[in-house]
Amino acid sequence: MKQYTIVLLGALILSGVVGFAQTSPASIIEDFKPSAVNQPGQEYPKVNSQGYARFQILAPDAKSVVISLGLGGAKGGTVLIKEQDGYWRGTTAGSLDEGFHYYHLTIDGGIFNDPGALNFYGSTRWESGIEIPAHDQDFYALKDVPHGNLQQIFFPSKSTNTSRRAFVYTPPDYHKDKTSKYPVLYLQHGWGEDETAWSNQGRVNLIMDNLIARGKIKPFIIVMTYGMTNEVKYGGLASFRIEPFQTVLVEELIPYVDLNFRTLSNQSNRAMAGLSMGGMETHSITVNKPNVFSHYALLSGGIYKPEEIKDKSKIKLIFISCGSRERPESVQAAVKTLKDAGYNAVSYISENTAHEFLTWRRSFKELAPLLFKD
């Protein structure tokens, strides 16, 4: 990927844009409920049916409390007002996009997490999270269906001289049927996140459980690992080199997974996908290693061009997606070019979302049924 493309991608990742649909305060509906990702028993933050968020922070000696929503605190924040009981309270100026958002508190210039909310690793730190109910949230809801297993593993990495962590999702029947082997998807997170992102923020295991229960997909294993082999700080993605992580993934993690799990360990049953920076990694590695993966997916993570691909016969699927508030015309044009060149290419545009997890949850829901078709 060219340098200017990486810089643009980094800017998109860091912006963490959170959309606001402006509504006059008089029209706010007072049906606020605790966010679905609050700490147990915590009433705040709250969200209402319009997508407004309301916050309450106890800081009696503070001089200023601001809620900064989005990676890096996009949109300037929501200023809370101190009341006589020592609590600071306030409501967002507009309704938020549906889905998951990071946020933090700025109290007298210091950055803190909200004690009422669960924490999620994003923006290179543990951030508070808030969930705005989506009209289509049923596909990633926790339901009374058979559940797969999400386990933490550690695998040896000689190239980095350490043991590295990954999370592995195995389908519900994996531990019942001791003979069946499964295809594998290697699924990468975005910049500033880690290997917990797809399960914690993305709810990928619940999406899989629900799709399998409905008979919509061929069950497969998912492997999620940390996509960085060096510390890349804000503005430094242009200097990111794929080769060290490519070694970790292809030469260390994949052999470990094939040895320790019942996998179909050939190229035709192996896929790679990633969101944002993970899409950048997916693009580079799949182009560099055409004998390793047969299914490619970029979720808000760039595009493929036919001339980049060395051997068309080795590719079963190219999936490219983004939110409608990103650059959908670029995705659609790229997929048309790939189709015209004879590739099995599919585009997906998530309506009314930007560079955010509802885009990627929806994208995964569309991608999963397309993987590993006979």
What features would you describe in this structure?
The chain has 374 residues and is of the alpha+beta class. The protein folds into two domains: 19-133, Immunoglobulin-like (Sandwich); 139-370, 3-Layer(aba) Sandwich (Rossmann fold). It is 22% helix and 29% strand. It is built from seven helices and 21 strands. It has helices spanning 3-15, 197-200, 204-213, 243-260, 277-288, 328-340, 357-367, and strands spanning 20-22, 33-34, 46-47, 53-58, 65-69, 74-79, 81-82, 87-91, 94-96, 99-107, 110-112, 119-122, 125-132, 149-157, 162-170, 184-188, 221-225, 270-275, 295-299, 317-323, 345-350. Strands 14-15-17-16-18-19-20-21 form an eight-stranded mixed β-sheet, sandwiched between helices. Strands 5, 6, 10, 11, 12 and 13 form a six-stranded antiparallel β-sheet that branches. A five-stranded antiparallel β-sheet has the order 2-3-4-8-7, with no helix packed on it. The protein starts with a helix and ends in a 7-residue tail after the last helix.
